[in-house]
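To the wet lab folks,

You asked to see what we're planning to order before we commit. Fair enough. Below is the target structure as tokens, and below that is the sequence we designed to fit it. If anything looks off to you, flag it before the synthesis order goes out.
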């Protein structure tokens, strides 16, 4: 079927996917989608892109939790050391261990070690090379 001049805009498709349209507008769009292959393909593409985006966001949240679980444990152990006086030293040791685990599992620790090694070998010139290569790879 040929694409009609009255096709649905991307904004309307977005509103349709987010279910923020009135009942009449939703029915109008569904009627158009039933007869326009081009808009139906656009809707399918937008729906797949939205699903992929939501999956990525969920993975990022899980990654952040896993990345910071050791830090959370260290903070909790530190706080407990003040409330449970009998186990003060044990909780402080747990704080140090969990904090060290958080530090050494992060990529920042590896980067710092690389920079330190470069500085030992070639001073500031070698360190600058490492920093430039990191700037090229890491975009904020």
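Sequence we intend to order:
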């Amino acid at each position: 079927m040929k694409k009609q001049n009255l096709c649905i805009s991307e904004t309307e498709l977005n509103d349709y996917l987010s279910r923020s349209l009135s009942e009449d507008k939703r029915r109008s769009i569904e009627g158009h989608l039933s007869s326009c292959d081009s808009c139906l393909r656009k809707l399918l593409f937008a729906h797949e892109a939205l699903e992929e985006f939501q999956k990525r966001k969920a993975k990022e949240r899980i990654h952040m939790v896993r990345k910071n679980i050791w830090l959370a444990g260290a903070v909790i152990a530190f706080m407990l050391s003040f409330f449970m006086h009998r186990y003060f030293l044990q909780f402080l040791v747990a704080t140090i261990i969990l904090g060290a685990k958080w530090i050494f599992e992060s990529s920042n620790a590896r980067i710092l070690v690389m920079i330190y090694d470069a500085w030992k070998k070639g001073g500031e010139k070698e360190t600058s090379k490492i920093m430039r290569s990191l700037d090229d790879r890491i975009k904020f």
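Structural context that might help your review: Residues 10-105 form one domain. The chain has a mean pLDDT of 82.

Thanks,
Computational group
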